[in-house]
Amino acid sequence: MPIGYVVTTALVAWCTFFAAVAPRRPRPLGSMSFWFGLVLNEVPFLGLYVLLGATALAAVQGDLGSPGARATAGVAAATAAGLAVCAWRGLRADRAVGRALRQGLGADWQDRVRVPLRGRRPWALILLRPFPWGRRDVERIADIPYGNAGRRNLLDVYRRRDAPRGGPVLIYFHGGGYRSGQKSREARPLLHRLAGQGWVCISANYRLWPQTSFPGHETDAKKVIAWAREHAHRYGADPSMLFVAGSSAGSNLASLSALTPNDPRFQPGFESADTSVTAAICLYGYYDHDVDRPPPHSPLAHIHSGAPPFFIAHGSRDALATVEGARTFADRLRRVSDNTVVYAELLGGQHAFDLFHSPRFEAVVDGVEAFAAWVLAERHPGAQQASSS
Protein backbone atom coordinates (compact mmCIF):
# COMPACT_ATOMS: atom_id res chain seq x y z
CA MET A 1 0.00 0.00 0.00
CA PRO A 2 1.61 3.32 -1.09
CA ILE A 3 1.00 5.27 2.12
CA GLY A 4 2.33 8.56 0.75
CA TYR A 5 0.00 8.39 -2.25
CA VAL A 6 -2.98 7.56 -0.06
CA VAL A 7 -2.30 10.35 2.43
CA THR A 8 -1.69 12.97 -0.28
CA THR A 9 -4.82 12.02 -2.20
CA ALA A 10 -6.92 11.96 0.96
CA LEU A 11 -5.74 15.43 1.96
CA VAL A 12 -6.52 16.93 -1.46
CA ALA A 13 -9.88 15.13 -1.53
CA TRP A 14 -10.77 16.46 1.92
CA CYS A 15 -10.05 20.06 0.92
CA THR A 16 -11.79 19.63 -2.43
CA PHE A 17 -14.94 18.43 -0.70
CA PHE A 18 -15.11 21.61 1.35
CA ALA A 19 -14.35 23.73 -1.72
CA ALA A 20 -16.91 22.16 -4.02
CA VAL A 21 -19.59 20.41 -1.99
CA ALA A 22 -19.88 21.34 1.70
CA PRO A 23 -22.69 23.76 2.65
CA ARG A 24 -22.22 27.28 3.99
CA ARG A 25 -24.39 26.50 6.99
CA PRO A 26 -24.70 25.30 9.68
CA ARG A 27 -21.55 25.75 11.66
CA PRO A 28 -19.03 24.21 12.03
CA LEU A 29 -19.42 23.07 8.42
CA GLY A 30 -19.43 26.68 7.25
CA SER A 31 -16.16 27.53 8.97
CA MET A 32 -14.63 24.26 7.78
CA SER A 33 -15.64 25.12 4.21
CA PHE A 34 -13.69 28.34 4.53
CA TRP A 35 -10.57 27.06 6.25
CA PHE A 36 -10.18 23.82 4.30
CA GLY A 37 -11.69 24.84 0.98
CA LEU A 38 -10.52 28.41 0.35
CA VAL A 39 -7.27 27.75 -1.52
CA LEU A 40 -8.58 25.02 -3.83
CA ASN A 41 -11.82 26.92 -4.42
CA GLU A 42 -9.87 29.86 -5.85
CA VAL A 43 -6.85 28.11 -7.40
CA PRO A 44 -7.94 24.49 -8.00
CA PHE A 45 -5.03 24.04 -10.40
CA LEU A 46 -2.76 23.62 -7.39
CA GLY A 47 -4.75 20.58 -6.29
CA LEU A 48 -4.57 19.11 -9.77
CA TYR A 49 -0.80 19.55 -9.79
CA VAL A 50 -0.51 17.68 -6.49
CA LEU A 51 -2.78 14.84 -7.65
CA LEU A 52 -1.00 14.43 -10.98
CA GLY A 53 2.40 14.52 -9.32
CA ALA A 54 1.45 12.00 -6.63
CA THR A 55 -0.16 9.64 -9.15
CA ALA A 56 2.80 9.85 -11.52
CA LEU A 57 5.25 9.18 -8.68
CA ALA A 58 3.24 6.15 -7.54
CA ALA A 59 3.18 4.84 -11.13
CA VAL A 60 6.94 5.30 -11.59
CA GLN A 61 7.56 3.45 -8.34
CA GLY A 62 5.27 0.61 -9.41
CA ASP A 63 2.83 1.20 -6.56
CA LEU A 64 -0.42 1.29 -8.54
CA GLY A 65 -0.92 -2.46 -8.81
CA SER A 66 -2.49 -3.13 -5.43
CA PRO A 67 -6.27 -2.91 -4.87
CA GLY A 68 -5.73 -0.12 -2.32
CA ALA A 69 -3.68 1.91 -4.80
CA ARG A 70 -6.27 1.45 -7.54
CA ALA A 71 -9.00 2.60 -5.14
CA THR A 72 -6.88 5.62 -4.28
CA ALA A 73 -6.48 6.41 -7.98
CA GLY A 74 -10.28 6.32 -8.27
CA VAL A 75 -10.56 8.79 -5.42
CA ALA A 76 -7.99 10.99 -7.16
CA ALA A 77 -10.06 10.94 -10.36
CA ALA A 78 -13.23 11.91 -8.46
CA THR A 79 -11.30 14.66 -6.69
CA ALA A 80 -10.03 15.97 -10.02
CA ALA A 81 -13.65 16.19 -11.18
CA GLY A 82 -14.49 18.25 -8.08
CA LEU A 83 -11.56 20.56 -8.78
CA ALA A 84 -12.79 20.95 -12.35
CA VAL A 85 -16.15 22.11 -10.98
CA CYS A 86 -14.35 24.72 -8.84
CA ALA A 87 -12.38 25.89 -11.88
CA TRP A 88 -15.55 26.15 -14.00
CA ARG A 89 -17.24 28.28 -11.35
CA GLY A 90 -14.25 30.59 -11.17
CA LEU A 91 -14.12 31.00 -14.93
CA ARG A 92 -17.76 32.15 -14.97
CA ALA A 93 -16.97 35.17 -12.79
CA ASP A 94 -16.35 37.32 -15.86
CA ARG A 95 -19.95 36.73 -16.96
CA ALA A 96 -21.28 37.70 -13.54
CA VAL A 97 -19.19 40.87 -13.48
CA GLY A 98 -20.16 41.82 -17.03
CA ARG A 99 -23.84 41.30 -16.26
CA ALA A 100 -23.55 43.39 -13.08
CA LEU A 101 -21.91 46.25 -14.96
CA ARG A 102 -24.63 46.25 -17.62
CA GLN A 103 -27.34 46.26 -14.96
CA GLY A 104 -25.68 48.94 -12.85
CA LEU A 105 -24.14 51.24 -15.46
CA GLY A 106 -26.40 50.66 -18.43
CA ALA A 107 -26.14 48.48 -21.52
CA ASP A 108 -24.08 51.15 -23.30
CA TRP A 109 -21.52 51.68 -20.53
CA GLN A 110 -18.61 50.51 -22.71
CA ASP A 111 -19.40 53.25 -25.22
CA ARG A 112 -18.86 55.87 -22.51
CA VAL A 113 -15.48 54.83 -21.07
CA ARG A 114 -12.06 53.96 -22.41
CA VAL A 115 -11.50 50.91 -20.24
CA PRO A 116 -13.36 47.86 -21.60
CA LEU A 117 -13.48 44.54 -19.80
CA ARG A 118 -10.15 42.89 -20.60
CA GLY A 119 -11.47 39.33 -20.95
CA ARG A 120 -7.93 37.93 -21.14
CA ARG A 121 -6.48 36.48 -17.97
CA PRO A 122 -2.84 36.53 -16.80
CA TRP A 123 -2.63 32.75 -17.08
CA ALA A 124 1.07 32.60 -16.28
CA LEU A 125 0.35 34.16 -12.90
CA ILE A 126 -2.82 32.15 -12.29
CA LEU A 127 -1.28 28.79 -13.17
CA LEU A 128 2.28 29.23 -11.96
CA ARG A 129 2.36 32.04 -9.39
CA PRO A 130 -1.12 32.61 -7.94
CA PHE A 131 0.19 34.13 -4.71
CA PRO A 132 0.79 37.84 -5.45
CA TRP A 133 4.34 39.05 -4.95
CA GLY A 134 4.14 42.49 -6.50
CA ARG A 135 5.05 44.13 -9.79
CA ARG A 136 8.38 45.47 -10.96
CA ASP A 137 6.85 48.74 -12.08
CA VAL A 138 5.12 49.37 -8.73
CA GLU A 139 6.81 50.48 -5.52
CA ARG A 140 5.46 50.22 -1.99
CA ILE A 141 6.30 52.99 0.45
CA ALA A 142 5.68 51.25 3.76
CA ASP A 143 4.67 52.19 7.29
CA ILE A 144 3.70 55.84 7.00
CA PRO A 145 1.99 57.06 10.21
CA TYR A 146 -1.41 58.72 9.93
CA GLY A 147 -2.37 58.72 13.64
CA ASN A 148 -0.97 58.17 17.11
CA ALA A 149 -1.92 54.50 17.66
CA GLY A 150 1.45 53.03 16.76
CA ARG A 151 1.57 50.22 14.19
CA ARG A 152 -2.24 50.14 14.02
CA ASN A 153 -2.13 53.65 12.55
CA LEU A 154 0.32 52.94 9.75
CA LEU A 155 -0.39 52.86 6.02
CA ASP A 156 1.42 51.79 2.86
CA VAL A 157 1.41 53.72 -0.40
CA TYR A 158 1.57 51.85 -3.72
CA ARG A 159 2.46 53.85 -6.81
CA ARG A 160 4.12 53.41 -10.17
CA ARG A 161 7.89 53.76 -9.95
CA ASP A 162 8.01 56.59 -12.48
CA ALA A 163 5.61 58.51 -10.19
CA PRO A 164 3.11 59.94 -12.71
CA ARG A 165 1.07 62.90 -11.57
CA GLY A 166 -2.67 63.41 -11.24
CA GLY A 167 -3.85 59.84 -10.72
CA PRO A 168 -6.89 58.89 -8.63
CA VAL A 169 -6.58 57.58 -5.07
CA LEU A 170 -7.77 54.21 -3.80
CA ILE A 171 -7.86 53.68 -0.02
CA TYR A 172 -8.12 50.03 0.99
CA PHE A 173 -9.01 48.53 4.41
CA HIS A 174 -8.15 44.93 5.25
CA GLY A 175 -10.44 42.29 6.73
CA GLY A 176 -10.21 40.22 9.89
CA GLY A 177 -13.47 40.71 11.75
CA TYR A 178 -12.07 43.76 13.58
CA ARG A 179 -9.94 41.34 15.62
CA SER A 180 -7.04 40.56 13.30
CA GLY A 181 -5.57 41.41 9.92
CA GLN A 182 -2.99 43.71 8.43
CA LYS A 183 -2.53 46.08 5.54
CA SER A 184 -0.31 43.83 3.39
CA ARG A 185 -2.54 40.76 3.06
CA GLU A 186 -5.66 40.96 0.87
CA ALA A 187 -6.47 42.54 -2.50
CA ARG A 188 -2.89 42.98 -3.61
CA PRO A 189 -3.68 42.09 -7.24
CA LEU A 190 -6.12 45.02 -7.22
CA LEU A 191 -3.66 47.43 -5.60
CA HIS A 192 -0.85 46.42 -7.97
CA ARG A 193 -3.06 46.64 -11.08
CA LEU A 194 -4.35 50.12 -10.32
CA ALA A 195 -0.99 51.42 -9.12
CA GLY A 196 0.58 50.17 -12.34
CA GLN A 197 -1.93 52.32 -14.25
CA GLY A 198 -1.03 55.51 -12.41
CA TRP A 199 -3.27 55.35 -9.39
CA VAL A 200 -1.95 56.02 -5.90
CA CYS A 201 -3.21 53.18 -3.70
CA ILE A 202 -3.20 53.33 0.08
CA SER A 203 -3.57 50.23 2.26
CA ALA A 204 -4.05 51.04 5.94
CA ASN A 205 -4.02 49.34 9.30
CA TYR A 206 -6.59 50.44 11.86
CA ARG A 207 -7.17 49.74 15.54
CA LEU A 208 -8.69 46.36 16.39
CA TRP A 209 -10.64 44.91 19.27
CA PRO A 210 -9.96 45.05 22.25
CA GLN A 211 -7.85 48.18 21.66
CA THR A 212 -10.99 49.86 20.41
CA SER A 213 -14.53 49.09 19.28
CA PHE A 214 -17.16 50.89 17.21
CA PRO A 215 -16.87 53.75 16.37
CA GLY A 216 -13.09 53.65 16.93
CA HIS A 217 -12.45 51.60 13.78
CA GLU A 218 -14.50 54.04 11.74
CA THR A 219 -12.66 57.01 13.25
CA ASP A 220 -9.38 55.52 12.06
CA ALA A 221 -10.83 55.03 8.58
CA LYS A 222 -11.83 58.67 8.52
CA LYS A 223 -8.31 59.64 9.59
CA VAL A 224 -6.90 57.76 6.61
CA ILE A 225 -9.23 59.61 4.25
CA ALA A 226 -8.30 62.95 5.85
CA TRP A 227 -4.60 62.03 5.54
CA ALA A 228 -5.04 61.23 1.87
CA ARG A 229 -6.84 64.52 1.24
CA GLU A 230 -3.91 66.38 2.76
CA HIS A 231 -0.89 64.33 1.72
CA ALA A 232 -1.65 62.09 -1.29
CA HIS A 233 -0.58 64.81 -3.75
CA ARG A 234 2.99 64.34 -2.49
CA TYR A 235 2.93 60.86 -4.03
CA GLY A 236 1.50 62.00 -7.36
CA ALA A 237 -2.22 61.70 -6.68
CA ASP A 238 -5.14 64.00 -7.25
CA PRO A 239 -7.07 63.67 -3.94
CA SER A 240 -10.23 65.07 -5.51
CA MET A 241 -10.70 61.61 -7.07
CA LEU A 242 -10.78 59.39 -4.00
CA PHE A 243 -12.19 55.87 -3.91
CA VAL A 244 -12.52 53.79 -0.75
CA ALA A 245 -12.44 49.98 -0.74
CA GLY A 246 -12.22 47.06 1.63
CA SER A 247 -12.60 43.33 2.18
CA SER A 248 -14.76 41.65 4.83
CA ALA A 249 -14.65 43.91 7.91
CA GLY A 250 -12.74 46.39 5.76
CA SER A 251 -15.70 46.42 3.39
CA ASN A 252 -17.87 47.38 6.34
CA LEU A 253 -15.47 50.26 7.05
CA ALA A 254 -15.39 51.34 3.43
CA SER A 255 -19.18 51.37 3.09
CA LEU A 256 -19.63 53.24 6.39
CA SER A 257 -17.03 55.79 5.33
CA ALA A 258 -18.75 56.32 1.99
CA LEU A 259 -22.16 56.71 3.62
CA THR A 260 -21.11 59.12 6.42
CA PRO A 261 -19.08 61.89 4.75
CA ASN A 262 -17.92 64.63 7.11
CA ASP A 263 -19.97 63.18 9.97
CA PRO A 264 -18.57 64.74 13.19
CA ARG A 265 -19.59 61.67 15.23
CA PHE A 266 -16.78 59.76 13.52
CA GLN A 267 -14.28 62.62 13.32
CA PRO A 268 -13.48 63.66 16.90
CA GLY A 269 -10.78 66.32 16.84
CA PHE A 270 -10.79 66.66 13.05
CA GLU A 271 -14.42 67.57 12.42
CA SER A 272 -13.56 70.06 9.68
CA ALA A 273 -11.62 67.54 7.56
CA ASP A 274 -13.16 66.55 4.25
CA THR A 275 -13.87 62.80 4.42
CA SER A 276 -16.20 62.52 1.44
CA VAL A 277 -15.35 59.93 -1.21
CA THR A 278 -15.99 59.58 -4.93
CA ALA A 279 -17.15 55.95 -4.80
CA ALA A 280 -16.93 52.76 -2.74
CA ILE A 281 -15.76 49.24 -3.61
CA CYS A 282 -16.95 46.49 -1.24
CA LEU A 283 -15.62 42.93 -1.41
CA TYR A 284 -17.34 40.12 0.58
CA GLY A 285 -18.46 42.52 3.29
CA TYR A 286 -20.32 42.05 6.54
CA TYR A 287 -23.82 43.49 6.28
CA ASP A 288 -26.97 43.26 8.35
CA HIS A 289 -30.32 41.71 7.38
CA ASP A 290 -32.54 43.93 9.49
CA VAL A 291 -33.49 46.73 7.12
CA ASP A 292 -36.03 48.20 9.55
CA ARG A 293 -33.85 48.30 12.69
CA PRO A 294 -30.19 47.94 11.72
CA PRO A 295 -27.57 48.50 14.45
CA PRO A 296 -25.47 51.70 14.22
CA HIS A 297 -22.37 49.81 13.03
CA SER A 298 -24.28 48.44 10.04
CA PRO A 299 -24.06 50.26 6.70
CA LEU A 300 -27.81 49.71 6.39
CA ALA A 301 -28.30 52.24 9.20
CA HIS A 302 -26.68 55.01 7.16
CA ILE A 303 -28.05 54.59 3.63
CA HIS A 304 -29.35 57.83 2.13
CA SER A 305 -30.20 59.24 -1.26
CA GLY A 306 -26.86 61.03 -1.61
CA ALA A 307 -24.77 57.87 -1.26
CA PRO A 308 -21.90 57.74 -3.77
CA PRO A 309 -21.66 55.03 -6.43
CA PHE A 310 -21.03 51.53 -5.08
CA PHE A 311 -19.40 48.42 -6.54
CA ILE A 312 -20.23 45.33 -4.45
CA ALA A 313 -18.86 41.84 -5.10
CA HIS A 314 -19.77 38.79 -3.04
CA GLY A 315 -19.36 35.03 -3.38
CA SER A 316 -22.45 32.83 -3.50
CA ARG A 317 -20.77 30.28 -1.18
CA ASP A 318 -19.32 32.72 1.35
CA ALA A 319 -19.27 30.83 4.66
CA LEU A 320 -18.37 33.77 6.93
CA ALA A 321 -20.33 36.74 5.58
CA THR A 322 -23.68 35.77 4.13
CA VAL A 323 -24.51 36.45 0.51
CA GLU A 324 -28.06 37.20 1.66
CA GLY A 325 -26.70 40.17 3.61
CA ALA A 326 -24.92 41.46 0.51
CA ARG A 327 -28.07 41.11 -1.55
CA THR A 328 -30.07 43.01 1.06
CA PHE A 329 -27.53 45.82 1.21
CA ALA A 330 -27.30 46.17 -2.57
CA ASP A 331 -31.09 46.09 -2.95
CA ARG A 332 -31.59 48.73 -0.24
CA LEU A 333 -28.95 50.96 -1.80
CA ARG A 334 -30.62 50.70 -5.19
CA ARG A 335 -33.98 51.64 -3.69
CA VAL A 336 -32.71 54.72 -1.84
CA SER A 337 -29.56 56.05 -3.52
CA ASP A 338 -29.64 58.45 -6.45
CA ASN A 339 -26.33 57.01 -7.68
CA THR A 340 -25.47 53.76 -9.38
CA VAL A 341 -25.04 50.44 -7.57
CA VAL A 342 -23.19 47.55 -9.22
CA TYR A 343 -23.70 44.20 -7.52
CA ALA A 344 -21.77 41.17 -8.78
CA GLU A 345 -22.65 37.81 -7.21
CA LEU A 346 -19.86 35.34 -7.93
CA LEU A 347 -20.87 31.73 -8.48
CA GLY A 348 -19.04 29.49 -6.02
CA GLY A 349 -17.08 32.38 -4.52
CA GLN A 350 -15.84 31.92 -0.96
CA HIS A 351 -14.78 34.50 1.63
CA ALA A 352 -11.32 36.04 1.03
CA PHE A 353 -11.34 35.39 -2.73
CA ASP A 354 -8.99 38.37 -3.19
CA LEU A 355 -5.93 36.62 -1.75
CA PHE A 356 -4.88 35.13 -5.09
CA HIS A 357 -4.35 35.73 -8.76
CA SER A 358 -7.36 33.61 -9.68
CA PRO A 359 -9.78 33.75 -12.62
CA ARG A 360 -12.48 34.91 -10.20
CA PHE A 361 -10.58 37.79 -8.64
CA GLU A 362 -9.00 38.88 -11.92
CA ALA A 363 -12.56 39.22 -13.27
CA VAL A 364 -13.49 41.30 -10.22
CA VAL A 365 -10.44 43.52 -10.70
CA ASP A 366 -11.51 44.03 -14.32
CA GLY A 367 -14.93 45.04 -13.04
CA VAL A 368 -13.50 47.47 -10.49
CA GLU A 369 -11.33 49.03 -13.18
CA ALA A 370 -14.30 49.47 -15.51
CA PHE A 371 -16.54 50.78 -12.72
CA ALA A 372 -13.92 53.33 -11.65
CA ALA A 373 -13.44 54.48 -15.24
CA TRP A 374 -17.19 55.00 -15.59
CA VAL A 375 -17.40 56.95 -12.33
CA LEU A 376 -14.45 59.14 -13.33
CA ALA A 377 -15.97 59.77 -16.76
CA GLU A 378 -19.21 60.88 -15.08
CA ARG A 379 -17.70 63.01 -12.32
CA HIS A 380 -14.24 64.00 -13.56
CA PRO A 381 -14.25 64.23 -17.36
CA GLY A 382 -10.73 63.96 -18.70
CA ALA A 383 -9.48 61.93 -15.74
CA GLN A 384 -9.77 58.52 -17.42
CA GLN A 385 -6.47 58.82 -19.17
CA ALA A 386 -4.67 59.02 -15.83
CA SER A 387 -6.49 55.96 -14.56
CA SER A 388 -5.87 53.81 -17.62
CA SER A 389 -2.43 54.92 -18.78
Describe it for me?
By secondary structure, the chain is an alpha/beta fold. 43% of the residues lie in helices and 14% in strands. The protein contains 12 helices and 8 strands. The radius of gyration is 22 Å and the shape is globular.
Strand order of the largest sheet: 1-2-4-3-5-6-7-8
Q: How many alpha or pi helices?
A: 12
Our estimate of the beta-strand percent is 5-15%
- The count of DSSP E runs of length 2 or more, i.e. the number of strands, is 8
Helix % is 40-55%
Point out poorly predicted stretches.
385-389
Instruction: Outline the biggest β-sheet.
Output: 8 strands, mixed
Net shape: globular
* Radius of gyration from the alpha-carbon trace, in angstroms: 22 Å
Structural class: alpha/beta
Order of helices and strands: HHHHHHEEEHEHEHEEHEHH
Rounded to the nearest angstrom, the distance between the terminal CA atoms is 58 Å
> What does the average pLDDT come to?
92
